[in-house]
TrEMBL record:
The family this protein is said to belong to: Belongs to the protein kinase superfamily.
Keywords: ATP-binding, Kinase, Nucleotide-binding, Serine/threonine-protein kinase, Transferase
Domain Protein kinase intervals: 20-278
MF terms in GO: ATP binding; G protein-coupled receptor binding; G protein-coupled receptor kinase activity
Record Gene3D superfamilies: Phosphorylase Kinase, domain 1, Transferase(Phosphotransferase) domain 1
Ligand binding (ATP): 59
Pfam families linked: Pkinase
Domain AGC-kinase C-terminal: 279-343
Cited InterPro entries: AGC-kinase_C, Kinase-like_dom_sf, Prot_kinase_dom, Protein_kinase_ATP_BS, Ser/Thr_kinase_AS
Annotated GO biological process: G protein-coupled receptor signaling pathway; regulation of signal transduction
The protein's name: Uncharacterized protein
Length: 353
């Protein structure tokens, strides 16, 4: 261990895998598993993403992984799943995040199928609160979908997974990553895009919660794109579930506009919040989480009960570990460093640079 690491450890700022007890796997991504872990010293539970370095390199995703880590270091908000620590060992990168025990929205959709208008409106308000924060920071999430929205134990939704999030810049037509069913037309058509793509995805989610299906369905990206370009979805009163308001249809229709300039949210989050459908949302109380959610997840962990996520090992290629380490320089993050008021500023800057 070098002098910098020794000083950080003395301060209680150095973090390794051995500082945590691994409880159970709760999900997986493209590079490894997500674990429920407990910090041994504090007994606090977190979600830990364990990502294999060689797999990241094979999938040419080094820049995306580093970009996510960079964005998470500047994001801190009650409607975001926040990063607490980031560190690495010879084989893996580790992201330690807030643990959300309510499960993701996809999991709850599969269990409950139907939600009331009051519940869906509350979900939408939570998502909008998170998006407002991101957009004011100049960040587009670009992968808003039920799998990336998770519940805390009080029934509030938070946004997670910033793997393809980007800071906004004018020429981004080549950035076409995302999940086809939730991608805005301008991304599908490889055009420049902005914050309106996230509001389009919000419209898809609300439509799905209303109708039990997405507005445009296909076996692949090409089929979904053809449907999207051939007709503009337009909800009518007769399309709504029993008891739903016409204002909910108007809200979704305005979010699903194919042309970004015609879409609710193109001019910023305030015009979304000002829509009549959300007129009864008390935004200040929502932010402080003093409102009672109309949906409360079951107590305990709402994760699929399995120890095997079918992750296939594909690491046959030999890549020198020394060259791997160089690619991930500066990955370390400890949220306590920002709160540390001591005379070790230079040491910490060196470690996190």
């Amino acid at each position: 261990m070098g002098n910098t690491d020794q000083k950080l450890e003395t301060l209680g700022l150095e973090i390794h895998k051995s500082y945590f007890s691994f409880k159970c796997p709760i999900g997986h991504g493209g590079f490894g598993k997500v674990w429920k872990v407990e910090q041994k010293k504090t007994k606090q539970c977190f979600a830990m993403k364990e990502m294999n370095k060689l797999r990241i390199i094979r999938k040419k995703s080094v820049s995306s992984i580093l970009n996510e880590r960079k964005l998470l270091s500047i994001i801190k908000h009650p409607f975001i799943v926040n990063m607490q620590y980031a560190f690495q060992d010879k084989e893996n990168l580790y992201l330690v995040m807030d643990l959300m025990t309510g499960g993701d929205l996809r999991y709850q959709i599969s269990k409950l199928r139907n939600f009331s208008e009051e519940q869906v409106k509350f979900f939408a308000a939570c998502i909008i609160s998170g998006l407002e924060y991101l957009h004011l920071l100049g960040i587009i999430h670009r992968d808003i979908k039920p799998e990336n929205l998770v519940f805390d134990k009080k029934g509030y939704l938070r946004i997670t997974d910033f793997g393809i999030a980007r800071t906004i810049y004018i020429e981004n037509s080549k950035e076409t990553s995302g999940t086809p069913g939730y991608m805005a037309p301008e991304v599908m058509c490889s055009k420049n895009h902005g914050i309106a793509v996230d509001y389009y995805a919000l419209g898809v989610i609300i439509y799905e919660l209303m109708k039990g299906k997405r507005p445009y369905i296909g076996k692949n990206r090409k089929e979904i794109k053809m449907q999207m370009l051939s007709s503009q979805v337009q909800l009518k009163k007769s399309d709504l579930p029993s008891g739903w308001s016409i204002e909910s249809a108007d809200f979704v229709n305005k979010l699903l506009q194919r042309k970004p300039k015609n879409r609710l949210g193109f001019n910023g989050p305030q015009e979304v919040k000002n829509h009549v459908w959300l007129s009864d949302i008390h935004w200040a109380n929502l932010y402080t989480k003093t409102l009672k959610s109309p949906f409360i997840p079951l107590e305990g962990d709402n994760f699929k009960p399995t120890n095997n996520f079918g992750f296939k090992d594909d690491l046959d290629a030999f890549i020198p570990l020394d060259s791997v380490d160089e690619l991930f320089n500066g990955y370390f993050y400890n949220q306590n460093i920002d709160e540390c008021k001591c005379d070790t500023t230079q040491t910490i800057k060196i470690r996190t640079r």
